[in-house]
Amino acid sequence: MDFNDRSYGHRVAVVGASGHGRVVADILEMSSFDTMVGYFDDGRSVGDQIGEHLVLGRIEDIREVSGRVRIDRIVVGIGDNATRAKVAEAILKAWPTAKFTTAIHPSASVARSAKVLDGTVVMAGAVIGAGSTVGHHCIVNTNASLDHDSELADFASMAPMATTGGNVRIGRYSAISIGAVVKHSVRVGQDTVVGANSTVLADIGDGVIAYGTPARTIRPRVHGDRYL
Questions:
Q1: How far is the CA of 57 from the CAs of 51, 161, 172, in angstroms?
Q2: In this structure, what DSSP letter does residue 182 have?
Q3: What is the pLDDT of residues 170-226, one digit of tens each?
Q4: Helices 81-94 and 62-69, interaxial angle, to 10°?
Q5: In this structure, what are the phi and psi dihedrals at residue 22, rounded to the nearest 5 degrees?
Q6: Rounded to an integer, what distance in angstroms lies between the CA atom of residue 71 and that of residue 223?
Q7: Is residue 50 scored above 90 in pLDDT?
Q8: b or e along 72-103 (b: 16 or more beta carbons within 10 Å of the residue's beta carbon)?
Q9: Are 209 and 218 in contact (CB under 8 A)?
């Protein structure tokens, strides 16, 4: 692969070469505009082959490598919300002028009036409804649906098949797990995890784990606690 080929639009590197990162790379490979150029991963060796692409370096190398292979944009391919935030911060520390991009699967449905901010990944079959806003560095995973006039705040995520009604608010760093349903006009606080297949019928506060049908707060949760 010629890393200096300038015949495409944005040349994008993925930070994180695990399973989630490979899915992000696959989205970029399907893009008619962006070009996937390789990975950065502190847990891999430079030159490791991940599918069709190579590990180009560690996060601390990203600025130097970008000058050699031309990297226009970055996307963080890490599933855990708090870890993704730390990595985005580390990227900007290593390369203060770095720019992040969105990665949106061609089969996703994003309303023209919706906003999807930089760093966010929208996966296959996902739906983002009219008037909704998806913040920076979010994940709207496979077949997830954020209905009209809703908000998914920065670094939050919706797992595969998670669904909301309209006018829902999901706070920063929060995670709506696989198959969970959030009723219309409900607020989920920040740093909160809603368990798999739960049904959220009323507001849930900040920093808790909630699950069940109807979902109930089970215990407190501290920012950064693992949930994946």
A1: 16, 34, 29
A2: E
A3: 999 999 999 999 999 999 999 999 999 999 999 999 999 999 999 999 999 999 998
A4: 70
A5: -70, -35
A6: 32
A7: yes
A8: bbbbbbbbbbbbbbebbebbeebbeebebbbb
A9: yes
In eight-state DSSP terms, residue 185 is T
Q: d(Cα 168, Cα 43) in Å, to the nearest integer?
A: 37
* 127-128 and 121-122 strand pairing: unpaired
Q: How far apart are CA 36 and CA 224, in angstroms?
A: 29
- Tokens 């180009």 found at: 56
Please report the sign of the dihedral spanned by the C-alpha atoms of residue 91, residue 92, residue 96, residue 97: positive
Q: Which of 3, 172, 171, 13 is nearest to 101 (CA)?
A: 13
Six token digits for residue 170? 């999901």
Query: pTM for this structure?
Result: 0.93
Residue 201 DSSP label = -
Alpha-carbon distances of 224 from 84, 100, 135, 142, 174, rounded to whole Å: 10, 22, 19, 23, 10
Contact between residue 10 and residue 34 where contact means Cβ atoms under 8 Å apart:
yes
- The DSSP H or E segment spanning 133 is strand 133-134
What does 40-94 look like in DSSP terms, one character per residue? E-TTS-TT-EETTEEEEE-GGGHHHHHHHHT--EEEE---SHHHHHHHHHHHHHH
The per-residue pLDDT for range 106-146, each reduced to its tens digit, is 999 999 999 999 999 999 999 999 999 999 999 999 999 99
How many residues make up the chain in this entry?
228
pLDDT tier for residue 95 given thresholds of 50, 70 and 90: very high
